[in-house]
Amino acid sequence: QNNGVLPLKRRQGKKIALIGPHANSTDDLLGYEDYHAANDVVASTGSVLRILQREAEGGAFELSYALGATM
After folding, report:
1. What is the CA 51 to chain-centroid distance, rounded?
2. Three-class SS of residue 52?
3. What residues pair up with 65 in beta bridges, in sequence order?
4. Which residues, given as ranges, of the chain have pLDDT below 70?
């Protein structure tokens, strides 16, 4: 349940930590059956990390990324 958390409100001074080996992957965002149907959408938007990096460039928030455990 969302409870009003998403979408994130753009306020300077906010910090977001993105942790995990799949954050910078476009291949791992989709399940096997959905991969081919939605591949064009993911390819055009990029990984979760790239999307958040673009948003952070405008000063909306501070972004930290760590690889975390590898799979």
Report:
1. 6
2. helix
3. 18
4. 1-2, 10-12, 27-44, 71
Q: Is the bond leading into 7 cis (omega within 30 degrees of zero)?
A: yes
Q: Is the pTM of this model over 0.85?
A: no
CA distances (Å), origin 37, targets 20, 30, 43 = 25, 10, 12
Length of the chain: 71
Burial of 49: CB neighbours in 10 Å, binned 0-12, 13-18, 19+:
middle
From CA 50, how far away is CA 71, in angstroms rounded?
A: 20
Q: Which of 46, 48, 56 is nearest to 10 (CA)?
A: 56
Of the candidates 65, 63, 51, the one whose C-alpha atom is nearest the C-alpha of residue 21 is: 65
The tens digit of pLDDT for each residue in 18-34 reads 998 888 887 666 655 55
